[in-house]
Amino acid sequence: MQLIKLNAIDSTNSYLKELVRTSKVQNNTVVVSQEQIKGRGQRNASWKSIPNESLTFSVYRTCKGLDISNQFYLAIAVSLAIFKVLNSFKVSGIKIKWPNDIMSYQKKLCGILIENVWTKGHLSYTIIGIGLNVNEQNFNDLPIATSLFLETKKMFDLNEILKCIVNEIETQFALLEAQNYNKLHQEYEAVLFRKEMVSTFKNNEGKQFQGIITGVSPSGLLNVKLENDVQKQYNLKEISLLLN
Q: Are 104 and 96 in contact (CB under 8 A)?
């Protein structure tokens, strides 16, 4: 692992993308910043970080043999890596909220932004951005956020957690390169947030409705059972799961 530490940056993903554009970057290069000013998440959301209390970093990875039809397995591999690390630290109630947020019970611990570059339908490289709440003690303006400290009442070493996550990503990517998609998919669905529970959703027109998450397709579509046992699939732009 090549580690680049920064004091403050607009976005570790943006920094790493520019680094790839201007120089030769080795596999498993990690950029970590004490403060991320313009962190980005899914659906163009921002990710707020507190200096020296949260962990914000990006990882440059290649993955041999992965084609674009299996790109959702990247999200599965990364979210499982973080899930396994947090489980090892005895954080309770950990689940993966589709597609790749990490939850503790009903609150969000971690967000992931994965940006891929493809060449002729095959992965050239991916940049994995991770924002993990670690030692924060309050989230006054973020009622659905939580941290490792709030869930365990323990303070954590940021460098130790970073190393553990990067090592576990390496393990999960080995499964990707071996095309062990069934194992990845089964493990992901086994810890899927609110699976087989009645949940409230909002569609892209702002309409709310209820349904039951039954799983996720290999392409990353959310399978939801609606009224009268009607099964429907949704992509990320079509639906959001409401937490309250």
A: no
pLDDT for residue 228: 86
- The hierarchical CATH code for the domain 2-190 is 3.30.930.10
Domain ranges of the chain: 2-190, 198-241
Write the DSSP symbol of residue 230.
-
99 cis-preceded (ω within 30 degrees of 0): yes
Nearest to 113 by CA among 17, 211, 179: 17
End-to-end CA distance of the chain: 40
Q: Which of 86, 83, 29 is nearest to 60 (CA)?
A: 29
pTM of the complete model: 0.92
Q: How far apart are CA 39 and CA 41, in angstroms?
A: 7
pLDDT beneath 70, residues of the chain: 38-49, 244
The candidate with the shortest Cα–Cα distance to 75, out of 112, 33, 37, 108, is 112
What does the mean pLDDT of the chain come to? Answer: 93
CATH number of 198-241: 2.30.30
